[in-house]
Amino acid sequence: MMTGEQYKTSLNDGRATFFEGQRVDDISANALLGQTVGVVANTYDRFYKPEPDAISDYMKVPGSAQELWDQVAAHHDVDLLTHVTYASIMTLLTAADRISEKRPQAVEAIHKYVDFVQKNDLRVTQCITDAKGDRSKHPADQQDPDAYVRVVDRKDDGVVIRGAKLHISGASLGHELMTIPTKAMRPGEEDYSIACMVPVNAPGVKIVNTTYGPRHEDTRDFPVSGNYHMPEGFVIFDDVFVPYDRVFLDGETEYAAVFAHSLGLWERLGGLASMADGADEMVGFAQLIAEANGLERVGHVKEKISEMIIHATLVRASLEAAISNCQITSDGAAFPDELYTNAGKYHGAANYNQMVRHLHDIAGGSVLTAPGIADLENDETGHLIRKYMGTKQSVDGAYRTRLFHAIRDTTADAFGGWKAVTNVQAGGGLYAQRIVTRKHYDMEKAKATALKTARIDPADVH
Q1: Which of 75, 193, 295, 442 could form a disulfide with 256 if both were Cys (CB 3.0 to 4.6 A apart)?
Q2: Residue 427 has pLDDT above 80, yes or no
Q3: Are 292 and 391 in contact (CB under 8 A)?
Q4: CA-to-CA distance for 85 and 91, rounded, in angstroms?
């Protein structure tokens, strides 16, 4: 296993990382990206074990509902890159189980690769969403054939891939890029049916970063994103060679969607767990700001908070149902129930904006306009801000101001915007979750129940 310092050193491997128009040769030294490197390094130190054959707790494959619960709990307060690595490992193992009968050679390669990642304590990120070009056309019908990542050359010892993957959280801070098809492929799209693992520093890989991290000198007005943020990578594969022992799918169009569906399951479980915590957090902010504003007993405020409580409870209930009803693969790995995972993720994402609207309505306009912490410390303005930001003797103006900053940072600023979009898009959009939910819902049982209630003999159904 690696220590935090060893992790930092491992990033100096010649990777081509770009941020705000410049190549970044030392990521740890960058003012913004370096902050996240430090957070990931702290996670390395937190899980570090000195034994030569030790495997990090967060990388352990669950074999029961309880162990799956333990992993969800362990990932409650780890950095996003650490969580994505675990989800990547579980994606590969889930996909291996689903293709085991017809692609046993790929299954063996996947297990060897997972063992390699675990033993070397590496971080893996997920490259799935392609540039896509004209969304109305299939990959093979695009004017630019590189709109989806594809194989452009096959050699005796490997393949050469070209294309781009978008929205890749933490791409520049990991070690490996899990590169898989974003959707099902048709006959004739064999070159797009490629699933492989690519080192971040492989020749031809270029990563352009963006971040919601605040660019302010005084980050105290950003109590959440000022302390932790994760860059998003625009990953370009500019004729990148991948040896065959890192290729898990190569031309088998009928399996192209397996990896994406497996990833969707684990990303949606992670999203559901995050939404459960986030929903409780929003209820807490709503109640606290209502009390600070002196509105906690007002009828419409109580109703809005009640609706937020119901939302939070349903999201958490879906998470509990998804884990409690987990399935066990042929290899003994536990994975969450598809129906409850997808239905819960859909409900949480589809209703998120309504919950934020309730919070903003309860809080008021100071969510956006509350003075900064430095203004509170100013000799001329500080005491006046405290006076007028206060609402009653028991509510200090500085405390209320800090509440407004936290609400703005998490729901109405750059980080809040990132959350609003990723709640919908992470693990696939809402439509994808509706499709999977319908697929796994027992419609025949529902129909039989309805026929029984109507006292209609199923034999009479035409």
Answers
A1: 193
A2: no
A3: yes
A4: 10
